[in-house]
Amino acid sequence: MRSEFYKLEGAGNDFVLGVGAWARRFESEPELVRRLCDRRRGIGADGSLALEPVDLDRVRLGYRNADGSVGAFCANGTRCAARAAVELLGSNPKLLVETGWAEILAEVDGSQVSLELPPPEARPQNPEIVAPEHATALCLMKIGVPHMVVATEGLADLDLGLIAPPLRYHPALGAEGANIDFYEMATDRSLRVRTWERGVEGETLSCGSGMVAVSLVVMAENGTREVELIPLSGDRLTVEALGEPPVCATRLTGPARFIAKLDPSDEFLRDL
What we know:
CATH architecture of the largest domain: Roll
CATH topology of the largest domain: Diaminopimelate Epimerase, Chain A, domain 1
Helix content: 10-25%
CATH superfamily of the largest domain: Diaminopimelate Epimerase, Chain A, domain 1
């Protein structure tokens, strides 16, 4: 199998993706992932994707955050990996992606990729945390990884660098903390979302599992079964409930795009 290295983005959430020997290195070398994901001294990415074929209907995906830590799940990364599997590995457009959380059914239609996600492990919880200014509700739930969903006002003006870290590391969330997803409903009923992500330790342009968490909370409150979401990137994604929210399977649909193919003979890559 050839060894290749790409950069992709899913609704602004960007990743380096390896197949062949590059996939094996991403799996085993966290320092390599940290260097590549560095936005000043590397290529720049929110994480790495190690993609391996199993058969035409199945691939295996290993994910690391930008800090090199292993992540159980990344929804936008899984969508990117599914498109890469179809276009690079010859996988079928409908395939299973084995992740650290679960086997995820993906369907690829050009640059649009849908995932069917299992239900969250439990109903949303309301941790005993004092809500920051402008926040109106806090809910904790797990979509492969933990998310704190924060309903807020004045989303565009929030200083996430100031208000997100105390929530992300709050003792009530345990040693690993949680991703923090702030949302506000727009006049057209779409959900604007901003996310502070673990492993990046900063705001990303979007977070797929975070948008699913937000959607389940909102759908349960409003009695709806489908929502449109607009993350910081400005892309539009949809989440559909495949059951009764908030504890049900979901379908997440949005864009996944190739940015570049990296040349292994490049002097920077030869130094790695």
